[in-house]
């Protein structure tokens, strides 16, 4: 028998392994989820059917192993999915205890099978439909539900969209983010970059989550995205951050899959505040939208603030309502964005546009240790 070809593999002392109800063990390089329930061992593949989550690092729920990434469940003895999803099964392995050692059969007793899952509508290939330039406005200001108030940032955004529709013949859509019910990003990326999926794991699991409307608009519909925000304590609004944290899944596709969900899209920003910090807020917004692949026109944002010494918000509102130049500025911003979008739609960017070197999450082709070794060889 060749070394390593044994069919029963010793994975450790039974006394030790009994201490945890679920753990990962290795058969060579094969990951196994080893379960100990009521003193009995069982073993299933340690690789989840969904996107490969480590089942041995999950938890036990009754007879089911729960994947730590998105909570799919597999029976701890048969490997079958939970009731209704039995066809979604991971391989099960025989286990026996001999002389106080736990042995797992290398060959699985059952095969992996995947139930066909209807792809989520957002998963379709982004493809620009013919037609006029489409402008999406995302307003991130917050206000009391059912008690509307004047918002400087949203007023300027509405001016921009009106100009786009009436003067530039664009299709327009406004999403007030405060009207959507959606969950915060729950940190799937923090488990593993591959646990952050497109479409977002939350969107796939929770049919009531309305962030889908933003994804649909940004990825599949818009040519131009105009985001408006108030300044809150020197930053963008909390809703802006809640929204962009959920858009990390778009950026993450660039990082883990070299997949560009946003191509030939243009972004612009409207930032207003009673107090200052316009450049910092703009810098954050530009940085994020650049990382998800947006282009920018010249002068990609318009802004207004009363400055540090002011505490007269009534005047601030009045200035924005009455300032023709601010509203003209918002219209000019959307014109610049639409002009740039026109260039993008008609033209095409060269291959260098998507070159990975130096971009986020791209490993280098050299290492410090490697360089040191080469240096030592050269020196020798
Ligand atoms: S549920 Fe296991 S990888 Fe998603």
How would you characterize the overall build of this protein?
The chain has helices at 14-17, 152-166, 188-191, 201-205, 212-221, 238-246, 248-257, 278-291, 313-322, 324-346, 368-379; strands at 8-13, 22-27, 30-37, 40-45, 59-61, 64-66, 73-75, 92-93, 95-98, 101-105, 134-139, 171-176, 224-230, 266-273, 301-305. It folds into two domains: 8-105, Rieske [2Fe-2S] iron-sulphur domain (Rieske Iron-sulfur Protein), CATH 2.102.10.10; 121-347, Flavodoxin domain (Rossmann fold, 3-Layer(aba) Sandwich). It is an alpha/beta fold. α2 (152-166) packs across α10. 31% of the residues lie in helices and 21% in strands. FE2/S2 (inorganic) cluster binds next to loops.
Write down how many β-strands occur, each being a DSSP E stretch of 2 or more residues: 15
What is the domain tally? 2
What small-molecule ligands were found? FE2/S2 (inorganic) cluster
Radius of gyration, in Å, reads 27 Å
Class of secondary structure makeup: alpha/beta
Q: Order of helices and strands, N to C? A: EHEEEEEEEEEEHEHHHEHHEHEHHH
Name a few traits of the molecule:
Rieske Iron-sulfur Protein; Rossmann fold; 2 domains; four-stranded antiparallel β-sheet; 11 helices; elongated; binds FE2/S2 (inorganic) cluster
Topology of this protein?
Layout: E1 8-13, H1 14-17, E2 22-27, E3 30-37, E4 40-45, E5 59-61, E6 64-66, E7 73-75, E8 92-93, E9 95-98, E10 101-105, E11 134-139, H2 152-166, E12 171-176, H3 188-191, H4 201-205, H5 212-221, E13 224-230, H6 238-246, H7 248-257, E14 266-273, H8 278-291, E15 301-305, H9 313-322, H10 324-346, H11 368-379
Parallel strand pairs: 11-12, 11-13, 13-14, 14-15
Antiparallel strand pairs: 1-10, 2-3, 3-4, 4-8, 5-6, 6-7, 9-10
Helix pairs in contact: 2-10
FE2/S2 (inorganic) cluster (FES) is lined by residues 48, 50-53, 67, 69-72.
């Amino acid at each position: 028998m060749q070394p390593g070809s044994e069919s029963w593999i010793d994975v450790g002392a039974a006394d030790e392994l009994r201490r945890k109800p679920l753990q990962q063990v290795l058969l060579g390089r094969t990951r196994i989820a080893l379960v100990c329930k009521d003193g009995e061992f069982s073993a299933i593949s340690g690789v989840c059917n969904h996107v490969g989550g480590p089942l041995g690092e999950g938890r036990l729920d009754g007879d089911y192993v729960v994947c730590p990434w998105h909570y799919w469940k597999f029976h701890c003895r048969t490997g079958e999915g939970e009731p209704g999803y039995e066809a979604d099964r991971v391989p099960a392995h025989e286990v026996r205890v001999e002389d106080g050692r736990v042995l797992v059969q290398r060959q699985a007793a059952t095969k992996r099978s995947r139930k066909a899952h209807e792809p989520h509508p957002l998963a379709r290939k982004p493809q620009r439909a013919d037609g006029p330039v489409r402008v999406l406005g995302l307003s991130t200001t917050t206000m009391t539900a059912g008690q509307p108030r004047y918002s400087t940032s949203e007023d300027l955004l509405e001016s921009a969209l009106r100009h786009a529709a009436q003067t530039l013949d664009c299709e327009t859509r406004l999403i007030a983010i405060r009207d959507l019910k959606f969950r915060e990003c729950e940190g799937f990326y923090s488990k593993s970059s591959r646990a952050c999926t497109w479409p977002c794991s939350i969107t796939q699991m929770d049919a009531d989550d309305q962030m889908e409307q933003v994804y649909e608009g940004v990825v599949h519909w818009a040519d131009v995205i105009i985001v408006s925000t108030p300044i809150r304590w020197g930053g963008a609004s909390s809703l802006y951050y809640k929204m962009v944290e959920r858009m990390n899944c778009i950026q993450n596709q660039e990082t883990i899959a070299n997949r560009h969900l946003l191509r030939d899209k243009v972004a612009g920003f409207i930032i207003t505040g009673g107090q200052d910090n316009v450049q910092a807020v703009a810098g954050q917004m530009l940085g994020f939208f650049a990382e998800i692949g947006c282009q920018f026109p010249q002068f990609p944002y318009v802004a207004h603030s009363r400055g540090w010494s002011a505490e007269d918000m009534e005047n601030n509102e009045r200035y924005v309502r009455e300032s023709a130049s601010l509203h003209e500025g918002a219209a000019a911003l959307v014109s610049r964005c639409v002009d740039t979008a026109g260039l993008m739609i008609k033209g095409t960017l060269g291959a260098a546009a998507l070159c990975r070197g130096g971009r986020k999450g791209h490993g280098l082709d050299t290492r410090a240790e490697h360089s040191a070794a080469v240096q030592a060889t050269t020196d020798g």
